[in-house]
Amino acid sequence: MFRPRIMLVAAAILTAVSATGAPKEAPVDLAGLLARALWLQGRPDEAEDHTVLAEELADPDDVDAQVNWRCVQAQILAARGEGDAAEKLARGAVELLESTDATILQIEALLDLAEILDRLDRPGAEEARSRAHALALAKQSDVLVARVLVRA
To answer: Which fold has domain 2-151?
Structure first.
């Protein structure tokens, strides 16, 4: 299968970039994105390894990096049944983005929160608000990817 090979290549790049002292943003961003890709492939243990790495490398002021690892870690915690910790982490990610113009990341974080609430059997008004807010952001955005995220 093609996808696992891409993940292995990405992991090799992450290792190489980390070892060469390249700019800090490259391995942090790659670790967070790789964590999400591994989570989506149903590989939570590997995804968590990458969230830990991203958390360690992320500058506290790097909102993108902070949100990326928090959203994936929240999904992992929810899957384990650690509902309160998962919800807190997901809400924290959404709050970090409130004052930014990172539309796609906001949509992803809101959809992650809604999914976590649903997974924890806490659907209802809050889940609906998260989905509605994500949809509103997508409709306001000229970015096609934002609209696709909401429909997926």
So the answer is: 1.25.40
**Three-state DSSP class for residue 80:** coil
Q: Which of 16, 6, 67, 66 has the alpha carbon at shortest distance from 41?
A: 6
Q: What is the distance, to the nearest Å, from the Cα of residue 6 to the centroid of all Cα atoms in its chain?
A: 19
Task: Say what the pTM is.
Answer: 0.76
DSSP string, 53-77: HHHHH--TT-HHHHHHHHHHHHHHH
The CA distances from residue 41 to 31, 37, 107, in Å, are 15, 6, 20
pLDDT in tens, 80-105: 999 999 999 999 999 999 888 888 88
**Token output for 66:** 């902070």
Output the CA torsion sign for 127, 82, 28, 16. Answer: negative
* Dihedral sign of CA atoms 40, 46, 52, 53 in order: negative
Q: Would you tell me how many other CB atoms lie within 10 Å of the CB of residue 9?
A: 10
Domain boundaries, the chain: 2-151
